[in-house]
Write a structure and sequence with these properties.
It is a single chain. It is built from ten helices and 15 strands. It has a domain of about 230 residues: Rossmann fold. Strand 13 and strand 14 form a beta hairpin. By secondary structure, it is of the alpha/beta class. The structure holds NADP nicotinamide-adenine-dinucleotide phosphate and ligand G4F. The site of ligand G4F has 22 residues, from helix 3 and helix 6. The site of NADP nicotinamide-adenine-dinucleotide phosphate has 27 residues, from helix 1 and strand 5.
Length: about 350
């Protein structure tokens, strides 16, 4: 019998990579997509077939803000594994829509766990919760499973709720439920408003057109960036263990946003020079300003330094990333150049 997986957040970056991984592992994959006025399935269009034909990949409408829709889908699909990747996942935006972020990103998790319980499926279903390094916030690196949470955004706070409600349901009701605490991971599928993708897209367009301008916020925030393809494998590995546990997944390396710009410029062969400080800092290429600072991209409270200690996952899950920041940036640039040219 094929295993059945249900993915909340299937249309996002990780949802797309995870679906492809599970299909390769011979799962039947069901994904939940939100109703949207424009198409939101671009990342999975290549694996979605006409549902009237025989396929192992199905999409259903649903929404994490709607308990009954969550419950009915789980009852209908009867999955062996549920991956909760659904979230309002943008940290900056969470300051603009904190209540909505809490509803989806915190209570959405509770709705899934409660549905499993209500349906008495706690013995059948394994549950993965997409936790984040944003939960560490102001805590100093390196951050591990033992580091104190000190979130610095409504998004981070919502994820801390999800983390603890997952542990509580595991302990109270014996649900096989794991928290992955994943550090930043990127790919050509990354949403356009996250900083790596924004830099790659902006600089590739400027490079091809010979001019243009990119506006950014804090260039000195430090992040531990990995590749989404490596990170979804860790999610799956967590659910294959005998005992449910929580794991940090990270590269262990840390770079500034400015250094990421440097990597992209180097690969594109663009020689840039920096002038000015603070809000007046700017980058020049061929004597023209191509990067300026715009304070709208600063957050009211920032997470300045993230670097994960993933030794537990490397030992117990035998997980190791295949990519590094250079191969990641290179792949993102190649895909972006292809996209712009076509
Ligand atoms: P993403 O690209 O923003 O995808 C988020 C997914 O959640 C999308 O499919 C989105 O649907 C869906 N979603 C949003 N609101 C929903 C709702 N009300 N009901 C149902 N689905 C909803 O995020 P990602 O980068 O793939 O990340 C996956 C998960 O890991 C998220 O929970 C994120 O918070 C967490 N995480 C990400 C990182 C990272 O660096 N990427 C690190 C740690 C944790 P639409 O396509 O319709 O918007
Ligand atoms: O790319 P970012 O928006 O990612 P952030 O805030 O670290 O959050 C991402 O990673 C988390 C894991 O730690 C996930 F949980 C979360 O869902 C999301 O995927 O910003 C990275 C850094 C920040 O310090 C930000 O202030 O880049 C800085 N930055 C500078 N200029 C910018 C910009 N961020 C964005 N989005 N846009 C800018 O123009």
């Amino acid at each position: 019998m094929k295993k059945i997986a249900l993915i909340f957040g299937v249309t996002g970056q990780d949802g797309a990579y995870l679906s492809k991984l599970l299909l390769k592992k011979n799962y039947v994959v069901h994904g939940i997509k939100r109703r949207s006025s424009s198409l939101n399935t671009q990342r999975i269009d290549d694996i979605y077939l006409d549902p009237h034909k025989k396929t192992n990949f199905y999409l259903h409408y649903g929404d994490l803000t709607n308990s009954l829709s969550v419950l009915k889908i789980i009852e209908k699909i009867k999955p062996n594994e549920i991956y909760n990747l659904g979230a309002q996942s943008h940290v900056g935006v969470s300051f603009d829509v904190p209540e909505y972020t809490a509803n989806v990103t915190a209570l959405g998790t509770l709705r899934i766990l409660d549905a499993i319980l209500t349906l008495k499926m706690q013995k059948k279903i394994k549950f993965y919760q997409a936790g984040t390094s944003e939960m560490f916030g102001a805590s100093k690196p390196p951050q591990s499973e033992k580091t104190l949470f000190y979130p610095r955004s409504p998004y981070g706070v919502a994820k801390v709720y999800s983390h603890w409600i997952t542990i509580n349901y595991r302990e109270a009701y014996n649900i096989f439920a794991c928290n992955g605490i994943l550090f930043n991971h990127e790919s050509p599928f990354r949403g356009e408003t996250f900083v790596t993708k924004k830099i790659v897209t902006g600089l590739c367009e400027i490079f091809l057109k010979g001019s243009g301008k990119l506006y950014l916020g804090n260039l000195y925030a430090k992040r531990d960036w990995g590749h989404a393809e490596d990170y979804v494998l860790a999610m799956w590995k967590m659910l294959q263990k005998k005992k449910p546990m929580d794991y940090v997944i990270s590269s262990g390396k840390q770079y500034t946003v400015k250094y990421f710009i440097h990597i992209v410029c180097k690969k594109l062969g663009m020689k840039i020079t920096w002038k000015g400080k603070g809000l007046n800092e700017r980058a020049y290429w061929k004597n023209k300003i191509i990067i300026s600072i715009d304070k709208r991209y600063f957050r009211p409270t920032e997470v300045t330094s993230l670097r994960g200690d993933s030794r537990k996952a490397r030992k117990e899950l035998k997980w190791k990333p295949r990519h590094n920041i250079y191969s990641l940036a290179s792949e993102m640039i190649d895909e972006e150049l292809k996209r712009i040219k076509t």
